[in-house]
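4.2 Preliminary Data

To establish feasibility before requesting continued support, the project team ran the inverse folding procedure on a target of 201 residues. The structure was first converted into the token representation described in Section 3, and no sequence information of any kind was made available to the design step. The complete token record follows.
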């Protein structure tokens, strides 16, 4: 679930930016120095580097949230991790959407909140994030306490999508589901049968 993101530069027009904004090339160089520090086990250094980029690069922001969540290079702080993930998720980063949803489902930094996690999972699943697809599939399989309609076919499609991206748990869950029922043969005396499409993901 937690991984260091590669550089994905998205600049934000925020007051916190320095008077002279850095170029994309400069941001990439600083970001990569954070990757090198992280890979060398210098988590304190990596955290400081990415912290300085958080208003200039959404991937750096997501990496900061991941480190706060795990307590790497800094004190573990679920609430702050959620807030930074939220900002990255609102910027459209699928990994941040999926990770924030995972925190909400698990109750990290507050009570479990599947309702708040649902739109994040939908957005990340639509962007082909396999963990989001798997977790959204679980919701459709069970109905998630009434949050979504129970729909085995939607769950099957989501599990298949996650499995195609190498997620073992999705493959196992897909195998455990009963096979899809055969298509009903229309009764010519009753007129056409209209079968609604599964919910859009």
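Position-by-position output of the design step:
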């Amino acid at each position: 679930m937690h991984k260091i993101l590669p550089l994905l530069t998205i600049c934000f027009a925020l007051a916190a930016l320095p008077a002279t904004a850095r170029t994309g090339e400069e941001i990439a160089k600083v970001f990569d120095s954070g990757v090198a520090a992280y890979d060398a086990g210098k988590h304190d250094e990596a955290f400081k580097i990415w912290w300085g980029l958080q208003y200039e690069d959404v991937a750096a922001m997501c990496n900061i949230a991941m480190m706060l969540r795990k307590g790497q290079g800094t004190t573990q702080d679920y609430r702050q991790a959620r807030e930074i993930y939220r900002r990255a998720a609102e910027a459209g980063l699928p990994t941040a959407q999926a990770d924030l949803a995972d925190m909400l489902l698990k109750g990290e930094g507050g009570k479990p909140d599947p309702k708040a996690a649902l739109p994040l999972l939908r957005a990340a699943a639509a962007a082909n994030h396999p963990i989001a697809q798997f977790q959204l599939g679980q919701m459709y399989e069970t109905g998630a306490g009434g949050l979504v309609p129970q729909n085995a076919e939607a769950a099957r499609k989501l599990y298949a999508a996650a499995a195609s991206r190498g997620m073992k748990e999705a493959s196992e869950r897909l195998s455990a589901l009963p096979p899809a029922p055969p298509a009903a043969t229309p009764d010519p005396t009753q007129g056409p049968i209209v079968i609604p499409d599964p919910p859009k993901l």
